[in-house]
Amino acid sequence: MNSKLLVGVGRQDITPGIGAVLQGYAPGRPAESIHDHLNLTAYAFEYESLRSIVAAADLLLLSEPFVSEIRQAMAEASGIPFDNIIICTTHTHSGPVTRRSPGEYPVDNDYLYNHLVPAAAKAAADAAASLRPALVGIGTTHSDVGINRRQINEDGSISLGQNPYGSYDPIMTVISFREPDGKPIGNMIHYGAHNTASGKNPEITRDWCGVMIDRLEELSGGITAFFNGCEGDCGPRLPSGKTTGNLQQALELGGQAATDAVRAWCSIKEWRSDFDMRVISGTVQMPLKKPASLPELEAELATFEDPSAISGLKLTHYKVVQERIEAVKSGMQFKDFSDMPISVVSVGPVAFLPIPFETFSVITLRLRKYSPFTHTLSLSNGNGSIEYFPSQDQLIRGGYEVWMFTSMKLQPYADNSEQCFVSGCTELLRKLKNNKPL
User: Fold this and answer.
1) Contact 193/235 with Cβ under 8 angstroms?
2) Which member of 21, 24, 222, 297 lies 3.0 to 4.6 Å from 186 by CB, making a disulfide possible if both were Cys?
3) Rounded Cα–Cα distance for residues 345 and 224 (Å)
4) How large is the C-alpha radius of gyration of the chain?
């Protein structure tokens, strides 16, 4: 039984070919070139008889059912248990279509099954095969790469832009690993902001985070990946005041992010060999909202235009309202709660908490405050992506993210979902921390 922390890293190229349809803003645009390659990077950990993987893929979103298939392939290739594997996406809007979204192009299943799954399995196997004794260093810095993107207009409406007085998380964290002789192993960068600076361009790119990753990797010599935090209501701080721009703006912002990441890495003063690693799996009970009354639903349906004249998200919403009406008429018994599986991995004072949503910053900031771990890194779109997860204080303001949260399902999550989620995750984190002393 090994009583020292072991770390290994595996990376695979997951760049689609030229002509692949790109997902995100301006859906349906074919890739005309590859500016920089997309990767899937897996970090394997072992302590005593326990092993785990935390991985990041340079993609927009992955559905929960498909993530289960990826995790299973990674488990079989590496020998690491399914529940001990976390995979999240960096949320680039310049990658292939990997999850169905209303109004967008179909999922590229050929890419998913013939490229992504084998690449994920190989990265996991390589990471597990390269496990070796590691020292851990942790650095943090203030970064203004991101900004709240829920712009409040003069009439009180919300649009995608920049909100300089809105919530965001300014902390960038770098977790760095090296061998006892100083040889670099890898780095994990954590920060929260949409990768949308280049979201309408025809190039395949990791967006602004790619510059940051490459700069720290070149300087440190260790394989580096980005793990996106509270990107649900946070976008790139572009000089135009918008949340999306072009490739040049992405590169410029990436340079700023690179400077911040390097500063965080350089702030590391201590490299520890006595950290352990732990894993906990559980469920968080999420409350569900029951549909409105039949008259209210029928009145809502009457507000829509002719269904043949609408498309995309509006058409999806129309169909959901129809589905709710039929469910109410049939006397369907609606659920009060749904159980959400959550697996958390900790390395010493760092907890990696996957959240299967595009998470609003207040939620992740609260989790950090209540967590017993010094560094609680919430990973948006972790082990799947369901939808946006707005904080309760933002529900009354509405806007695109809130509308998606309330309008795309037969039973959306209830208004008090934030509190239930924060309480459930905090309980999991405390159980993990109290498992045994550091």
Assistant:
1) yes
2) 222
3) 19
4) 21
Report the alpha-carbon distance of residue 302 to residue 165 in Å, rounded: 37
Contact indicator for 324, 291 with CB cutoff of 8 Å: yes
Q: How far apart are CA 322 and CA 301, in angstroms?
A: 7
Report the chain (438 residues): mean pLDDT per 10 consecutive residues. Answer: 87 97 86 97 97 98 95 98 98 93 79 98 98 98 98 96 97 98 98 94 96 98 98 97 95 98 98 96 96 92 86 85 94 94 98 98 98 98 95 96 92 97 98 74
Give yes or no for a contact between 265 and 185, defined as CB atoms under 8 angstroms apart.
no
**Which residue from 87, 64, 65, 63 is spatially nearest to 74, judged by alpha carbons?**
87
Work out whether strand 132-133 and strand 2-13 pair parallel, antiparallel, or are unpaired: antiparallel
142 closest CA partner among 163, 169, 166, 165: 169
Greatest extent of the chain over all pairs of C-alpha atoms, in Å: 71
Do 68 and 356 contact (CB within 8 A), yes or no?
no
Q: Between the CA of residue 269 and those of 132, 137, 173, 265, 316, what are the distances in Å?
A: 22, 8, 14, 9, 52
Whether residue 244 contacts residue 200, with contact meaning beta carbons closer than 8 Å, is answered with yes
Which tokens go with 128? 């597990």
Residues contacting 308, CB < 8 A, separation 6+: none
Pairing of strands 50-57, 223-228: unpaired
How much is the pTM? 0.96
The CA distance from 12 to 42, in Å, is 9
Rounded CA separation 366/351 (Å):
14
Decide: residue 349, CB within 10 A, 0-12 exposed, 13-18 middle, 19+ buried.
middle
Distance CA 217, CA 207 (A): 16
CB atoms within 10 A of CB 401: 22
313 contact partners, CB below 8 Å, separation of at least 6: 102, 103, 404, 408
Report d(CA 191, CA 266) in Å as an integer: 17
| SS3 assignment, position 426 | helix
User: Edge-to-edge strands of the sheet including 223-228?
Assistant: 135-142, 171-178, 184-191, 223-228
Lookup result for tokens 């410029």: 252
**What are the backbone dihedrals phi and psi of residue 307, each rounded to the nearest 5 degrees, phi first?**
-50, -30
Q: Round to the nearest angstrom and report the end-to-end CA distance of the chain.
A: 17
